[in-house]
Amino acid sequence: MDDINGSRVINLSKATLEACIHCGLCLPACPTYLATGRETESPRGRIYLVDQYVSNKLPFSDRLAEHLDSCLGCLGCQTACPSGVDYESILDAVRPQLANKRSAFSRLLGRIAFRQVLPRYGLLRVLGMLLRIWQLAMGSRVLGRLTDHFAPDTTLSPPRRFLKRLAGWEKFLPLLKEHIPLPTRLDPKNPSDRGVHTLLFKGCVMDIFYNHVNHSTMRILLKQGHSVEVPDQTCCGALAFHQGEADIARDLARRNLERFGFGQDPIIVNAAGCGAMLKHYKTLFEDDPELAHRAAEFSARVRDLSEFLVQYTFQTIPEPFERKTTYHAACHLAHAQKVHEEPLTLLQELDKKNDTRKLVPLAQQEHCCGSAGIYNLFNTELSLDILEEKLDHLEKTGAKTVVTSNPGCQLQLEAGIAARGLDIEVRHIAEVLDRAY
Ligand code: SF4
Ligand code: SF4
After folding, report:
1. Residue 206 C-alpha to ligand 2 middle, in angstroms?
2. pLDDT per residue over 379-431, tens digit each?
3. Does 9 map to a domain?
4. Is residue 178 one of the residues assigned to a domain?
5. Pairing relationship of beta strands 227-229 and 267-269 according to DSSP bridges
């Protein structure tokens, strides 16, 4: 339980661990267990390992860290568990230990990215622009050709290994569209009585890779009669938190608490990962006497776009789907935020306008696609195995459009679909609704 400095780093009660009765009902919901068939890569196995560690029966060895690090954090197990095991708290408690296991270099790079790059939207836009130039100049192809000739990873020098990894990561990136800055505020021409003043959380990854989705989000809110403001803001801190860098996540959260201020205005989020983190601010500061109340109020105002839109009727008749469509639930929406039905209700509303139904179910719709924040960058092999399973199900639906609500899922699905050469487009729900209404 003690780290190398002798301080207690696992803040976890025995009762949380003992809530697991080892029934195994979570196993079919766990993508890493399904992909590997190994108990150590299952929720039950991981809880057992943490319990053994907390009881001083096992050291926090590299092997133990590997089993915990391979967890996607998708929380599918938590939804499936009939005993109400709080798996999220168990995983969150070991995240700093996992961070301690990373090499000093990789940890430093991560901390620089989380503290100095992601929160700086101006810098992100410049990097996005450079990436677009690189993509248009076919830089990816050159890098791919160069690294194709490299020997297997184990025999490569660190710079070559880094280049090879970079080439692998690039396959997950779509061709960036031109970035169009968001308006700071939009107001409906004819405000209705039901219109609400909303605040948009635009996200860092979302605004760089899918800036058009943020524009669609603003338009769709406007079409329902709401006004939308985009306050000054910073990264939600989810990526830092999931990498065990809780101090950075807290700093970023503090800044967002300040910038969004007090009030009743709902905070609308279209990226499931950010939404889950913003709702988690309440837990992040629950022991902080100064911020606990403020963070709880902030989290209570956060709404996923679908959660918000479904409460109101639209003022226009929608255009139905043109193509067979299916829905992939982002795990940070379904499991972390427990938003299961709302996106489907909105999509079904569109499908009602079709003579024959075009919205088709996706098997294991709420299973993770393997993206899980930046999991796919570091656990690429397992992430791709999990993606293959998702793509198999997707192909079986015969759908030509898959709708989702998280930039990580979009990147992952688009990369997998392109690699298989499938004729399926990936759309964010905001785009689909914006197009329809
Ligand atoms: S986490 Fe829940 S579902 Fe899984 S083995 Fe434990 S009690 Fe059973
Ligand atoms: S969070 Fe996801 S990957 Fe991790 S144990 Fe639970 S179901 Fe498996």
Report:
1. 24
2. 888 999 999 999 999 999 999 999 999 999 999 999 999 999 999 999 999 99
3. no
4. no
5. unpaired
